[in-house]
Amino acid sequence: xxxxxxxxxxxxxxxxxxxxxxxxxxxxxxxxxxxxxxxxxxxxxxxxxxxxxxxxxxxxxxxxxxxxxxxxxxxxxxxxxxxxxxxxxxxxxxxxxxxxxxxxxxxxxxxxxxxxxxxxxxxxxxxxxxxxxxxxxxxxxxxxxxxxxxxxxxxxxxxxxxxxxxxxxxxxxxxxxxxxxxxxxxxxxxxxxxxxxxxxxxxxxxxxxxxxxxxxxxxxxxxxxxxxxxxxxxxxxxxxxxxxxxxxxxxxxxxxxxxxxxxxxxxxxxxxxxxxxxxxxxxxxxxxxxxxxxxxxxxxxxxxxxxxxxxxxxxxxxxxxxxxxxxxxxxxxxxxxxxxxxxxxxxxxxxxxxxxxxxxxxxxxxxxxxxxxxxxxxxxxxxxxxxxxxxxxxxxxxxxxxxxxxxxxxxxxxxxxxxxxxxxxxxxxxxxxxxxxxxxxxxxxxxxxxxxxxxxxxxxxxxxxxxxxxxxxxxxxxxxxxxxxxxxxxxx
Length: 492
Prior knowledge:
The chain has two domains: 1-105 and 361-428, 2-Layer Sandwich (Uridine Diphospho-n-acetylenolpyruvylglucosamine Reductase, domain 2); 108-333 and 435-492, CATH 1.10.630.10. Helices cover 46% and strands 11% of the residues. It has helices at 49-60, 79-87, 97-105, 116-129, 132-158, 165-182, 195-211, 224-253, 256-259, 264-272, 281-312, 314-328, 344-356, 438-455, and strands at residues 2-3, 14-15, 24-25, 63-68, 71-76, 93-95, 362-367, 371-373, 376-378, 383-387, 456-460, 469-472, 474-477, 482-486. The strands form five sheets. Strands 4-5-10-7-6 form a five-stranded mixed sheet, with helices on both faces. It has a three-stranded mixed sheet with strand order 3-9-8, with no helix packed on it. It has a two-stranded antiparallel ribbon with strand order 1-2.
């Protein structure tokens, strides 16, 4: 049994093999030349692998093939096909086994690597812990954390010290996710040597190196960096175990939390203690770790890339500052939940940053059955890699594609479906496995970026080299060469 060709967004039907229609096979697709035995594996190694793939998209088109140690791999970037593939998860496609093994080896799994019924069970709990009502209830705490970071930055500048944006944005994201998911305020922003943040950074470094390595040597022998990664993994697990123990004690003292949990960790603990839920302690721990790790890096990197691009484009920065001033009025921060709906240019600036610097640029999948993708026959268990940037760098879809222009996302009237740029990018994935933390991320981005634009001017550091795009699992800037300068006309 196979799936209907996914060349148009039609409802899926199951068809007999003899009726499956396609005009080509993988070997008919274009692709770069490889080397004997290893194929294109060596070309795909390294922490800028995504740039190699993007270059091949330009050279070979929206669908091409690779060979990795004798196994075919198909790369897809046109928006319609990407959308259809993502909508086919989890039934039609699963995450690659290699990624799942690498993440599970470092105890980073949970809902991200789960499949089938296990995924559905875990997804329900994670979504409940990050829904709009939970985020709205947590909003005053997010405002407090943002104000805390603002005061830190003002104090540093008053002392003539620079602000380490890369470090502080990650600390703010860590404070936020630990607060909303775990119910704890660790104040990593004001702890310059926060152990948990350091271990997460080390973990991402190793995760990025392992996912872009052509040979999985650590299965056979361990280098010092691998032993350090295992140590960081153990330290993160210990920290999360402390959050779990503290939360379990609080739930014993406040019995009502068992029936009405106040955050994601409480919901997962309640489920793990209910035999009928089928939710195990192992799944509790892995999802708690995943929420802390995943929630720190993606949001911080998104804001960092926005600030880098805004600093390079003063006109866009000026337009965003004007919008923030108009929305906030005399206020120093966005303290009103309803303000989250009043930042169209900020949303556009984020969308444009994701178009140019997607923090999760590619998603690796494997076909669960023989199927057709883009009029091409894809056998069962074939690797299919989709570009979340979709057609974002296509000149035909985005003229002057290399330019940062948030205005291309501003419309007086919503464009028709085929012209809507939002349908050509997939920064949070798509289909049933759409990122469960996307609303939290967008809320945090709006609060933090509006605070920055309200109080500071952005200046590129003229002495710093351009930041490199590095895959630490997510795509991060090697540095954030942006200096903050207090605005003299900022609100108090």
